[in-house]
Records
---
Amino acid sequence: MPFSTWPNLLLPPGALGWTSPAMATVSWPYILLFAVLGLVIGSFLNVLIHRLPLMILNQDAPTDLPFNLHAPPSHCPHCLQTLKWPELIPLFSFVFSKGHCKHCQQSIAWRYPLIELITSLLFTLCLFKFGFTAQAAMACFFSAALLALAWIDAETFLLPDTLTQALLWVGLIGSAMSLTNIPLVQSLAGAVLGYAILWAISWVFSVWAGKEGMGQGDLKLLAGLGAWMGLWTLLPLLLLASVSGLIFGVIQKMRGQLGDNGHFAFGPFLALSGFACFFLGISMGV
């Protein structure tokens, strides 16, 4: 690409590709379909968020009972009572039970309906942005995977390879099959450069400070985001994530809640910035 065609970084933010969602005109049946589908997938994400980290942390621990994404059946975490099918209906079961287990009356964590509701809203936004198309379905996968990664990292400081690699490869394959609006060359360049940028930053920090400053999961997550949004979105995405992460870190430090090692999960800030760039079309204007 000739130097003369490179984006001018001195342009005001409004000229760097900031656009509002397309808000495609869609019918109410499609909106209802995506909203309900989001609730169902959100229910599965709750299982994924709870069990996948435990599966990773306990993979070498001997056990006689199977523990995976489908076994044991969904149950109350307090009384271990297996839930019946009416209790598995996303969001509505929480409302009908008034936020308590009907067997032991213990409170149900707000995380469960919140993730279902967020997923439903994200799926609906995908429909508004892309219409009833294959691109909308791809965007739903992107949203679900990114939400799960952000939540898992926030709770456990883990970014499972199962999800980061799925995000990366689905983004690349979708680009190759024209199921996303990112050309394959830009998708590949975004994945490679996304990993390389954070690897270089992590290496410099480790040499300077003598300790690891960023986990491998963050590198893989940015590579996945680069595959979905291309080369020219990496800089604004990383800037948004860095600034928001820095503000959070300063606030936590002032409140005395940052911890002795000064670490906090960076994945949620990459994910939030990824959502902003994806849905608002934030890029460097190329």
Note: The longest helix spans residues 28-57.
---
Amino acid sequence: MAPADRGHVHIVDDDPGVRQAIAAMLQGGGFITHEYARGRDLIAALEGLDPGCIVTDVNMPGMSGLDLMHQLRQLGISQPVLVISGEADIAMAVEAMKAGAVDFLEKPLHAEPLRNAVRAAMEQGTKLSSPEAERYRQIVRSLTRRQRQVLECLIEGLPNKLIAHRLDLSIRTVEGYRAAIMERTQAKSLSELVRLAINAGL
């Protein structure tokens, strides 16, 4: 990325250590970063906001990442949004993606996947081409009934133990289904699997 066209990334997280770590990782990839402790701080800065991408924690006190997304859409802000979440926040991250987030990444974050996700968000925005969407639907349709049930539970944010209880399966069986789903879809992470499922219309 040439200095003249480096992308601006607006980081929203209530934890200053996390904000600084994200900023450092992105700056190492040539991005220009701006930090905000709260969603309302970003909203207050909208008038002079540099175009680029927004990276927000999904679970924050006061205005959550999901609340922030809704507010941005109401104000007509179309910058792509990437959400980050802990394991316990997966269901909220899924809701954010359904509300228009481009992607979500699970904590702990790592530099290269984060940079790649931000680059993809800036290049592709929130739109998915019809052939891509159809390809995702075909992949989901290729799953067995049980695999699809497990996938639906995963995108609800349920851990293996609760999936096992809901579907009356052993935890080991659920783990087997998860592995089979990852292999069939070729998803490299839970976030990638969730993104595929949502783009397929689940």
Note: The CA atoms of residues 10 and 34 lie 5 Å apart.
---
Amino acid sequence: MSKLSLLQPDKSYTFRSYFEMPYEADEILQEFGYTLIRQRLNLPQTSEVLEFLPSLHQRLEETLPFVSLSSETARREILVAPVLLEVARHCHCQLRIEYPLVVNNWLRGNLDYLLHQEQRLLVIGAKNDDMTRGFTQLAVEMIAVAEAEDQDILYGAVTMGDAWRFGKIEQQQKTITQDIALYRVPDDLGDLVKILVGIVAS
């Protein structure tokens, strides 16, 4: 008996569609010919001293008591954008926000954030505090960017603002690895930023 396809050939799907699907991430990724692996990732990490880190950490610590993070917009503006702006400024790379991308009918939509340099780092905001479905959406977006930019290896991260999880796509091997580690903000801000800079500057 042949396996039923989850995606209809004549139907169009946005990146958001994959977040809303009731299927497991590995089932959805199989539709694109990819295998999902869950393990600890050995992520690039800069060893340079990042002079902006203490002030960024202090700014977040002083802001958090006065802001409700109950909406995705609040988390993006208060926690995600300040971190990515500092990384973009430090690495002299382009930060694209709500970046439109169309590869085909199954791979289309807007990327929340795309840090653009020799290596590309994709970051999306997890909707409704759901990191699991958020990673599914991230994985599909990484497939789209890898195909559009002809990149074999690409890193991404899904975030709720106060928690980040990384992923890695290897196009030739048709694998997507989901890191089992989670980075908290503000507690793990130093490690998180060093990884972001390490990926973008590598």
Note: The radius of gyration is 17 Å.
